[in-house]
Design brief:
Bound molecules: zinc ion
Distance between the termini: 31 Å
Number of domains: 2
Shape: globular
């Protein structure tokens, strides 16, 4: 067991849960996410569906994981508020599981579960979302200033982007 979104399977392969991010070591709910992943997958038969690019740059296999065929592990962690959706490429929206993952994040977000109960970043009066990168930004972010703003989605509501599985930009941290 490594953390909330990575584990070693019975064949010794390193599996990274696709399309989600769980808290890093030192962040709130890191231990909870790790323990929960272990609890969900232990002693269960696992089935993997690999993404279009199955290996990441750390040599991990990126996968949607199903436990006993009944539990969609990636979505379960989102639904419990122990991770956030992380769609790193536009074509992930075409995945048959995209809606399910967004729905799971939405449920946790609106219920204020775990990571969604933490203090929110300083609010903006509007946000910009890039439909190609699936990231959203503060208006002052370099990525917004560099973009043709007509190609960006805008909303006064941060949740609007989170509900669609956009991730907060790592630079401007909206
Ligand atoms: Zn940004």
């Amino acid at each position: 067991m490594i953390d909330g979104d990575t584990f070693v399977d019975a064949d010794g392969r390193k599996i990274r849960l696709l399309a989600i991010d769980t808290p890093e070591k030192g962040e709130p709910y890191y231990e909870e996410a790790k323990d929960e992943l272990k609890r969900i997958i232990d002693d269960r038969r696992l089935r993997f569906e690999f993404g279009s690019e199955s290996n990441d740059r750390y040599g991990r296999l990126l996968a949607f994981v199903f436990a006993d065929d009944s539990i969609f592990v990636n979505a379960r962690l989102l639904e419990e508020g122990l991770g956030r959706a992380y769609f790193f490429e536009e074509n992930m929206l075409e995945s048959p599981y995209a809606d399910r993952l967004c729905q799971s994040q939405k449920v946790a977000l609106h219920a204020g579960r775990k990571i969604w109960s933490l203090e929110k970043p300083r609010a903006e009066t509007r946000y910009f979302g890039n439909p190609h990168t699936l990231r959203f930004h503060r208006p002052s972010c370099n990525s917004v200033e560099r973009s043709d703003t007509t190609s960006l989605l805008r909303s006064t509501n941060r949740d609007y982007f989170l509900e669609q599985c956009y991730s907060p930009c790592r630079n401007c941290k909206p």
